[in-house]
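Lab notebook, design round three. We kept the backbone fixed and only want residue identities now. Task for the bench partner: fill in a sequence for the structure below.
Input structure tokens:
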């Protein structure tokens, strides 16, 4: 709508008047002109009216625009004309989202314009983007000099082109040398100054086996090269912090497509991504493939992506018909590839590491020639052979055996050739007729294949109860040619190549000769589930973990997640992964109870150690949720579900969400509150089932709780909780559970909003309001406070969706409720009344009712000043927020001296707060300084205004 008015306003005075009305109504919320456009968008149109032109009426239109625009907005424009940097100065008003339940979550929304910021501030914002460690290129893994020349020449020409072929996709079978090529390409591009970023997927590394960190890593790398793009990305993060953990499509637009479209870069920007197939699998999300197919074709032609992958079905389905992708296949049978293999074989065979172990009369040219032939273009084959020779006893004899076996198989398909090599190596790793050896292999290799992240030998040994066979001096050393990490007790162990994992866990089962090597990943995962639980029970029983128990305490006893001491690596892994391993066991039925050992340890773990395991994960790792275990457990029947106290667990997860939110771990906080809401939804439905036979049909609507609250559903809830219903005790339970579900929904709404998921946030808040309105209708003295809380938050969500009329009506209702509550108990409710008055002021301003807005914010400041006088540590932050909004409101009314006075006091308070808690309040101090700069400018104190603005820039956006 705004863009249309802007175009029309060049020739239509009615349109100008409408534009001014929009400016007035939107200005006081979060942006100087409002949600529909920033000053940076509107200013060019104002400038048009300043320029002399041949069209009659041009200056008349300018005069009419000036006459119909409030002084505060005209001043904004004039400041833009004089001080271009002013676009970064004027920030929107702060809103309060109330606290909820027994938590203490406050979400203060503010506006951030896309402008240039101080370098330190930009870096602070960019540091919020997660970055994948170890994802970059490695020169030691690059191709040998003089190899892959034709392919590298093609890449060289493509990299300098600006045609439509934005993606160079190299396809090749497993083990064909794609990763070495990717490293070589990255190394060459770096030397030419063209490499912007690189990302090497790796199935064995959790941070690199999904695309979750791909775009944020690339964005940070590009931002490090181009300051304008860095400032653009930083502004987006400050405006919407949820982007740091948002789904890939949103990140692509915010961090890649958007900045590149807004900032012209005069040189090539090239990214290298290796092993895409290890990050995007057949059963996973296809968001990244959709972006590669549909999003990359619209990027500037100087942005290029070099990509390698195996030709999997999902890759072919999504990418094969895209014109902007240039496909190249690595032909392992080509003469050039065989020549490159020969160069590699000669280099390795003549190197000190191999030649020193091969005895006299080495190099044996005949053996080396056979190696070159037998490799048949597969780099992983020859790399595995040399890895085997480095650790084998009598390596020359072993090489003879490998070559003799391979000669008869030289015409097999590449994967079969690799599998046969793996089989040959495993065959000589031990005596497969020895039962003890086979059992030890199953334990050791089974664990390596089943763990959810690579573990060291020391951790594996601890998980297995100190098994002596899991030590460097025993079995593991036999497998050094196919596993990485066996040189050190504390190094994580993982397969040399993905193809070895696939052979052992899948293809080895297909033939009689290799079946002895086969390992069932799920079967070993079941074993690890038991071992993880036993480790947790054993160590928590025998060891004191300092700092645990915090989820049983109120937030007032210390918010956030405390640091724990005394957590061993095996205990951490057990707490992180027991649920993942449990999920690998098919959901049982009551007729299929899990193994006796697993059932026994579950009985010991769930009642006594489950909550502590959650505390350990939250303190030292990442909380990923617990719903899947609940679903699994419910298949076991009442004997086991009774061990899982759903009401207590819901309360624990509710508190965990609050603490994670305090730490700024928003995705984890959302996961925790989603789990809490799920359990409380189940409990509420279960309570409905108990009451249904006693209260009759009105309760049929109770099952809609948390999903759809029509008037009929609300009537059903009212009847369920009505005091005249003669179901003593059970009615109280229904009321209590409905209230707790509303608490979780309210918390869920705030978490969703904090992550930018506004549609879901609004829906959750509306559900909470519906539940609390039903409760308050029957018991206002008990539930009016909770209803007012939800109404307060609902007004913010409605305003976020542009539904300002509804938002104003809702916040007025919230103020009415809280004013009545504060009249009876001012010591308790003046705090939240001030919150709602603050929000009411913002909504009144958005409707142009500035005088009423001033009255509301002045009342809020009065309440908060009294609160801060008694408890400054608790309320100075709130007072500073309201003073900031008071300053803005005075500015809107042209009362600049009073605006300046309020801004100065807000800066003084926030300066003290920022010194105490810089991570939380530095950005807020920056905003207050920008408002102060604005007020000083309007008072003619330009030099002081510039000083305040420079300080704000130095602090960040």
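Proposed sequence:
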């Amino acid at each position: 709508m705004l863009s249309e008015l802007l175009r029309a306003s060049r020739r239509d005075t009615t349109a100008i008047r409408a534009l001014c009305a929009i400016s007035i109504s939107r200005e006081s919320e979060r942006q100087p002109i409002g949600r529909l456009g920033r000053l940076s968008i509107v200013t060019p149109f104002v400038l048009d009216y300043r320029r002399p032109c041949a069209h009659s009426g041009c200056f008349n239109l300018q005069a009419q625009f000036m006459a119909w625009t409030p002084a505060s907005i005209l001043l904004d424009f004039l400041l833009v004309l004089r001080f271009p940097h002013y676009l970064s100065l004027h920030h929107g008003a702060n809103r309060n989202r109330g606290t909820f339940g027994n938590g203490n979550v406050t979400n203060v929304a503010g506006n951030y314009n896309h402008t240039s910021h101080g370098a330190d501030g930009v870096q602070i914002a960019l540091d919020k983007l997660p970055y994948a460690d170890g994802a970059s290129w490695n020169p030691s893994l690059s191709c040998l000099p003089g190899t892959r020349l034709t392919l590298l020449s093609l890449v060289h020409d493509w990299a300098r082109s600006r045609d439509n072929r934005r993606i160079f996709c190299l396809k090749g079978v497993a083990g064909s040398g794609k990763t070495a090529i990717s490293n070589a390409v990255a190394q060459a591009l770096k030397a030419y100054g063209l490499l912007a970023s690189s990302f090497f997927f790796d199935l064995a590394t959790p941070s690199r086996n999904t695309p979750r960190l791909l775009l944020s890593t690339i964005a940070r790398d590009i931002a490090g090269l181009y300051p304008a793009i860095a400032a653009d990305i930083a502004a987006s993060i400050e405006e919407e912090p949820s982007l740091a953990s948002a789904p890939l499509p949103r990140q692509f637009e915010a961090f890649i497509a958007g900045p590149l479209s807004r900032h012209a870069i005069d040189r090539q920007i090239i990214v290298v991504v290796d092993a895409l197939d290890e990050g995007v699998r057949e059963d996973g999300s296809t968001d990244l493939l959709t972006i590669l197919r549909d999003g990359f074709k619209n990027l500037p032609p100087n942005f290029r992506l070099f990509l390698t992958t195996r030709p999997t079905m999902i890759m072919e389905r999504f990418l094969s018909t895209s014109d902007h992708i240039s496909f190249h296949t690595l032909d392992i049978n080509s003469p050039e590839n065989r020549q490159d293999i020969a160069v590699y074989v000669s280099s390795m065979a003549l190197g000190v590491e191999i030649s020193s172990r091969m005895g006299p009369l080495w190099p044996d040219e005949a053996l080396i020639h056979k190696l070159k032939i037998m490799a048949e273009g597969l780099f992983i084959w020859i790399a595995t052979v040399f890895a085997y020779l480095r650790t084998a006893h009598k390596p020359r004899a072993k090489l003879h055996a490998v070559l003799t076996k391979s000669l008869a198989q030289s015409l097999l398909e590449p994967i079969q050739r690799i599998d046969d090599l793996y089989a040959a190596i495993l065959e000589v790793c031990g005596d497969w007729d020895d039962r003890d050896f086979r059992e030890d292999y199953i334990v050791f290799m089974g664990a390596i294949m089943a763990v959810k992240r690579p573990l060291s030998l020391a951790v594996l040994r601890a998980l297995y109860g100190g098994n002596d066979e899991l030590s460097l001096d025993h079995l593991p050393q036999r497998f050094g040619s196919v596993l990485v990490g066996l040189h050190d007790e504390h190094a994580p162990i993982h397969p040399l190549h993905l193809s070895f994992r696939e052979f052992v866990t899948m293809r080895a089962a297909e033939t009689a000769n290799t079946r002895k090597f086969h390992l069932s990943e799920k079967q070993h995962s079941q074993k690890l589930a038991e071992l993880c639980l036993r480790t947790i029970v054993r160590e928590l029983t025998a060891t004191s973990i300092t700092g645990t128990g915090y989820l049983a305490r109120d937030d007032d006893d210390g918010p956030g997640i405390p640091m724990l001491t005394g957590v061993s690596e095996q205990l951490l892994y057990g707490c992180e992964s027991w649920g993942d391993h449990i999920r690998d066991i098919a959901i049982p039925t009551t007729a299929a109870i899990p193994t006796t050992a697993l059932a026994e340890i579950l009985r010991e773990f769930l009642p006594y150690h489950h909550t502590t395991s959650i505390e350990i994960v939250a303190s030292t790792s990442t909380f990923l949720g617990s719903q899947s275990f609940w679903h699994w457990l419910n298949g076991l029947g009442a004997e086991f579900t009774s061990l899982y106290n759903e009401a207590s667990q819901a309360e624990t997860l509710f508190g965990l969400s609050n603490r994670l939110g305090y730490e700024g771990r928003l995705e984890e906080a959302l996961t925790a509150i989603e789990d809490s809401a799920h359990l409380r939804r189940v409990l509420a439905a279960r309570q409905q089932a108990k009451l249904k036979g006693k209260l009759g049909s009105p309760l049929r609507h109770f099952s809609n709780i948390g999903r759809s609250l029509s008037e009929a559903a609300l009537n059903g809830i009212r009847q369920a909780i009505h005091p005249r219903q003669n179901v003593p005790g059970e009615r109280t339970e229904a009321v209590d559970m409905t209230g707790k579900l509303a608490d979780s929904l309210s918390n869920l709404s705030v978490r969703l909003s904090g992550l930018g998921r506004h549609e879901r946030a609004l829906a959750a808040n509306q559900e909470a309001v519906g539940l609390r309105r039903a409760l308050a209708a029957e018991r206002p003295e008990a539930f009016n406070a909770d209803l007012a809380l939800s109404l307060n938050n609902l007004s913010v969500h409605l305003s976020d969706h542009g539904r300002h009329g509804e938002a104003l009506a809702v916040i007025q209702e919230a103020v009415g409720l809280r004013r009545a509550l504060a009249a009876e108990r001012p010591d308790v409710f003046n705090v939240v009344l001030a919150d709602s008055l603050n929000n009411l002021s913002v909504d009144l301003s958005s409707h142009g009712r500035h005088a009423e807005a001033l009255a509301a914010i002045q009342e809020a400041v009065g309440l908060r000043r009294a609160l801060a006088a008694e408890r400054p540590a608790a309320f100075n932050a709130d007072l500073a927020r309201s003073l900031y909004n008071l300053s803005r409101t005075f500015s809107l009314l042209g009362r600049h001296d009073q605006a300046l006075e309020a801004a100065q006091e807000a800066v003084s308070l926030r300066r003290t707060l920022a010194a105490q808690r810089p991570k939380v309040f530095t950005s807020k101090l920056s905003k207050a300084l920008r408002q102060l700069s604005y007020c000083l400018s309007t008072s003619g104190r330009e030099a002081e205004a510039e000083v305040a603005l420079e300080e704000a820039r130095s602090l960040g956006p």
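Keep this in mind before ordering anything: The chain has a mean pLDDT of 81.
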